[in-house]
Amino acid sequence: NAGVTQTPKFQVLKTGQSMTLQCAQDMNHEYMSWYRQDPGMGLRLIHYSVGAGITDQGEVPNGYNVSRSTTEDFPLRLLSAAPSQTSVYFCASSYAPFRYGEHEQFFGPGTRLTVL
Amino acid sequence: AQTVTQSQPEMSVQEAETVTLSCTYDTSESDYYLFWYKQPPSRQMILVIRQEAYKQQNATENRFSVNFQKAAKSFSLKISDSQLGDAAMYFCACTTGGSQGNLIFGKGTKLSVKP
Lengths: 116, 115
Prior knowledge:
The structure holds two protein chains of two kinds.
Chain A: E1 4-7, E2 10-13, E3 19-25, E4 31-38, E5 42-51, E6 54-57, E7 64-66, E8 76-78, E9 87-94, H1 97-100, E10 106-107, E11 111-115
Parallel strand pairs in A: 2-11
Antiparallel strand pairs in A: 1-3, 3-8, 4-5, 4-9, 5-6, 7-8, 9-10, 9-11
Chain B: E1 3-5, E2 10-14, E3 19-21, E4 24-26, E5 33-39, E6 46-52, E7 60-61, E8 64-69, E9 74-79, E10 88-95, E11 103-105, E12 109-114
Parallel strand pairs in B: 2-12
Antiparallel strand pairs in B: 1-4, 3-9, 5-6, 5-10, 7-8, 8-9, 10-11, 10-12
């Protein structure tokens, strides 16, 4: 199993540009989420999904869109990049907590995004 | 609002010694889970240990153990026989309630290990 994969590993954008961060998992996990990590801030939840076709907002959703058309993929879209979105982005997945109880979240390797 | 607080931005330990990282949390949930994650310089998030709040027994994983004080809402991580490979950022996390499985993280503690 590849686990949780994220592409790209690094990205530089100009203010106003849009892009999609890709996330895929091959563990048949129902739960997937996106976090951002900023220096001194820990990880903060952006959006999450409890299954295909179901998404919801986390703590810091503004400026980001998500969709979940398949169990495997959970892309994160930046609609109009801003310097405040410079961060490291992590995707995570787990078995459905509501079905199996709380399970370990498996994290991808992260994407470092810089917005100029 | 739920919060997770790690009061030690940085800690240092001598190789082979023991170190304790502090974490306090605030939740109104009766059923929740607590985690410690390790983030080495590679940036990969690695689960170190987890604790179910309804279990009174403290979790242990080899050299890692926790001191879970439910009434005090405290969840500290003890690393015994510290190794150079333990040097990393350590994050404490708590589930946010409901059945979604979301986590709220502390700001992290940077652990250095001196040879």
